[in-house]
Amino acid sequence: MLLVPYSCLLWLSTSGFRGIQAENPSHDVNMRSPHRGLAPANVDFAFSLYKHMVASAPGRNIFISPVSISMALAVLSLGAGGSTRTQLLQGLGFNLTETPEVEIHRGFQHLHRLLGESDTSLEMTMGNALFLDRRLELLESFSADTKHYYESEALATDFQDWVGASRQINEHVKNKTQGKIVDLFPELESPASLILVNYVFLKGTWAQPFDLESTSEEDFHVSKTTTVKVPMMFQSSFIKYLNDSVLPCQLVQLDYTGNGTVFFILPDKGEMDTVIAALSRDTIQRWSESLSLGAECGRQAPSRGPPSSLHTAGANRPSLVHAQQVVHKAVLHLEETGVKAAAAPMGGLKLMVRMGRPRSIKFNRPFIITVFDHFTWSSIFLGKFVSPT
């Protein structure tokens, strides 16, 4: 099972922010699978953001939820005006001459509903919350649109009491992510009047579960000079595998029950940057079409958590409606079955594939992980896993 809690927050200054101007688009237009139009822009934004985060934090674990970040920033755009709103939506990858703003929000509305429905794929909880200073008065149109399109909650907060405000936000996120995201809210360095929190909790069950009794410790090679022991899970089954002839990497596809898919990508030694630079819609499509079902194989993967806390903090967005900071945090749990995560570090991934003859593929060094939803073709999570500690 894969458990991935995630949260993103934005906080905004009081300067020029008493009321938020937002258009009030018509809500009665037929929604003909509007999420389909979001997929190309969302996936392009996902890889663009991922590459930026990797470049800004070399040698560190990176784990983000691109679709959640897109959704949070789209919520924020409802409170922006003029060129800031245009720049924000264009920054998310949308061409406003081809896709009207109202269609973007309808698309996110439909996507949010699809990802939250149990019959589409994964067990997922996704939502947004606006924490407002008690003195802040928002325009009704903004409140109505954020609630209509994004089901956002608006919660009054006393930002004069920083300790109490942070406790309130942390408890909200903790409850929404089943206790997996804790202490999200950092100390404020400057005044805030509104904080937007976006959260997602994902629980996916492997189509082929791992054997709990086969978990054992093995080496994970963080670098040429650093090796750590990690719990590794084992499974013997059929698996989709590709030794890429275009890029210097190997990869496997593990599926959830439902529409969820995970790609584990193992770059050749010293080729991590090359593979990351080539990640794109076309690359993912090529991999999907090229993956073949190998013969019986054994695969080992990280044991149950708490795994490493894979997070990035303090990504500045100075152009967003007085937004001072964007912070998000995600935690990845890989488990053999549906048992609750226990106290053990996250490890690597190992495969022994029999394709004519036995072949060993060990994810015991830095690798890449991507989580997609088939039905909506959404990039739910993207990660670069460097160190289990």
From TrEMBL:
Function of the molecule: Major transport protein for glucocorticoids and progestins in the blood of almost all vertebrate species.
Keyword match Signal: yes
GO CC annotation: extracellular space
Residue span(s) of domain Serpin: 47-388
Subcellular location: Secreted
Domain of life, per lineage: Eukaryota
Keyword Glycoprotein among record annotations: yes
Gene of this entry: SERPINA6
Protein name per UniProt: Corticosteroid-binding globulin
Gene3D superfamilies: Alpha-1-antitrypsin, domain 1, Antithrombin, subunit I, domain 2
Signal peptide (residue range): 1-22
